[in-house]
Design a protein that fits this description.
Layout: H1 2-13, E1 32-40, E2 50-60, H2 65-71, E3 88-92, H3 98-106, H4 119-133, H5 141-159, E4 166-174, E5 177-179, H6 185-199, E6 221-222, E7 251-252, H7 254-270, E8 272-273, E9 281-288, H8 293-305, H9 324-330, E10 335-345, E11 348-358, H10 360-378, H11 387-402, H12 406-425, H13 431-448, H14 452-474
Parallel strand pairs: 1-4
Antiparallel strand pairs: 1-2, 3-4, 4-5, 6-7, 8-9, 9-10, 10-11
Helix pairs in contact: 1-7, 4-5, 9-10, 10-14, 11-12, 11-13, 11-14, 13-14
């Protein structure tokens, strides 16, 4: 309950009105927005009559608070559904070659209707078609849009920015101004209808009380409305695999659901680090353990949100601007932190590690011992002494010893997660296992690497980690 309580408290700080708590920004770290200016006969109509595509341009993704309502974005409920909450399509990162991008949009032979994997086919069948089916758009509107996009395709391809994530957003042209989905009544109504359906949950049977607040409610939802890793087949987050009991697994009233949704969005937007293990996200969630916790959590969150997060340690100490964990260690008493390590796999969210109730004093101890181990092995140094560096260097070190084997890299990633979990929990670290891994693969590391400086650095960090584990287990 500690994790959920902390999420709820964060959502209670600044819960927006109306739809805002259920919204998020479509891109995490900047990117480009392909804006499609639709010619719509009457923007205030309940059924939108699309008459063509007036313009397509490229804009920067903006993360200002008012833009969340304009994008009107919420993640899909699953990978296989043929609708989204808003007329928005995640394109991903385009290729550097225009003709390869054309093939991605139209298919290998240009017949996009026959190729389910190309962008045009997905735009029609997985984004737009349900607007016409549901009556939000007038009959024939989707064909008009697709015909217009084909005419604008060359302009789109010429303006794509390689290495940047792109989204396609359908809005309206109002005298040259782009009107976002969140400014169009019909799109808002569509979103509200789909949201109501998705939040209705499967609460059948006798349970009529919210599992979080205990209030009686007639319209209950289940926790998987907020967390996609909170499903019946993933017992690492919620117990139970009996489908008959699905509706009774942590039912939530609409008020609690709203605040937990807002809390998740805030954590994902401002309290997430991606610099510990490549491909995994780490949620850092503060919780007060004092009687007047509500009075102290706000400044803590504001301080944490000012930090730069998401910096990636690309190699053993080459770059690390982030000092996120180091800052957590400097926070005063009366706080604990919850850490959730997870990855996104299409529409799924896979939890790898969850550690609750870690006090700042534990983090300060880990950093202190890391400083001792680094200086004992490396000598007099000034960089690499922070806890962020320590966490990231563990995976980087093991990854080097894994060599070219993807299977070994995956095994060592899981081992690194187990070590980090034990560090945070205050448990004994597997120093003997770590030493066996390093010694058994040292010769292979030398054999497969032509750069002696990299080999030397890897061996030195392996020695640092062996010393670190020994010191922690003693202390």
């Amino acid at each position: 309950m500690g994790f959920l309580q902390a999420i709820y408290d964060l959502g209670s700080l600044d819960t927006g009105e109306g739809l805002e708590p259920y919204l998020k920004f479509p891109l995490d770290n900047g990117g480009k927005v392909i804006r499609v200016f639709l010619a719509i006969k009457d923007l205030d109509a309940e059924v939108l009559e699309v008459q063509g595509v007036n313009k397509v341009d490229l804009a920067d993704h903006k993360a200002e608070s008012d833009m969340k309502l304009k994008y009107l974005y919420r993640d899909r409920v699953g990978a296989n559904v043929t609708w989204g909450f808003t007329p928005l399509y995640k394109l991903g990162k385009p290729k550097g070659n225009k003709e390869k991008n054309r093939e991605d949009w139209l298919g290998p032979d240009g017949n996009w209707q026959a190729h389910k994997g190309c962008h045009f086919n997905k735009l029609k069948n997985r984004v737009l078609q349900d607007y016409e089916t549901s009556g939000t758009m007038a009959p024939g509107s989707v064909d008009v849009i697709m015909a217009g996009l084909e005419q604008w395709l060359d302009i789109i391809l010429e303006n794509l920015q390689a290495k940047e994530s792109h989204i396609v957003v359908f809005g309206a042209d109002q005298g040259g101004r782009f009107v976002y989905p969140g400014e169009i009544k019909a799109f808002i109504h569509y979103f509200e209808t789909k949201l109501k359906q998705s939040l209705a949950g499967n609460t059948r049977g006798a349970s009529k009380a919210c599992a979080f607040c205990g209030r009686q409610a007639s319209n209950l939802a289940t926790l998987d409305s907020v967390f996609k890793f909170a499903t019946m087949d993933k017992v690492n987050f919620l117990p139970g695999q009996d489908k008959k009991e699905e509706g009774n697994i942590f039912p939530l009233c609409q008020e609690c659901l709203k605040k937990i949704s807002a809390g998740r969005e805030r954590v994902e937007r401002t309290l997430t680090s991606t610099g510990v293990i490549p491909g995994l996200r780490v949620w850092i969630i503060p919780e007060t353990v004092t009687i007047n916790g509500g009075a102290t959590i706000r400044p803590v969150v504001q301080r944490l949100e000012q930090l730069s997060v998401g910096d990636t340690l690309t190699s053993l100490g080459e770059r690390t601007e982030g000092r996120y964990f180091t800052h957590l260690a400097r926070e005063g008493g009366g706080l604990v932190f919850h850490f959730l390590f997870w990855e996104r796999n299409n529409a799924q969210e896979l939890v790898h590690l969850m550690v609750e109730d870690v006090p700042p004093e534990r983090l300060a101890f880990l950093e202190k011992i890391w400083n001792q181990a680094m200086k004992a092995v490396m000598g007099k140094i000034e960089k690499g002494l922070n806890l962020d560096w320590a966490f990231a260097s563990l995976y980087a070190t093991l990854n080097r010893f894994a060599g070219k084997s993807d299977a070994d890299k995956l095994v060592f990633r899981d081992f690194a997660l187990k070590v980090i979990g034990k560090m945070l929990k205050g448990e004994l670290l597997p120093e003997v296992t770590f030493k066996k891994i390093v010694t058994s693969r040292a010769a292979r590391l030398v054999y497969e690497n032509d750069n002696w400086d990299d080999v030397k650095k890897s061996l030195l960090y392996a020695q640092v980690w062996a010393e670190y584990m020994t010191l922690i287990n003693r202390g």
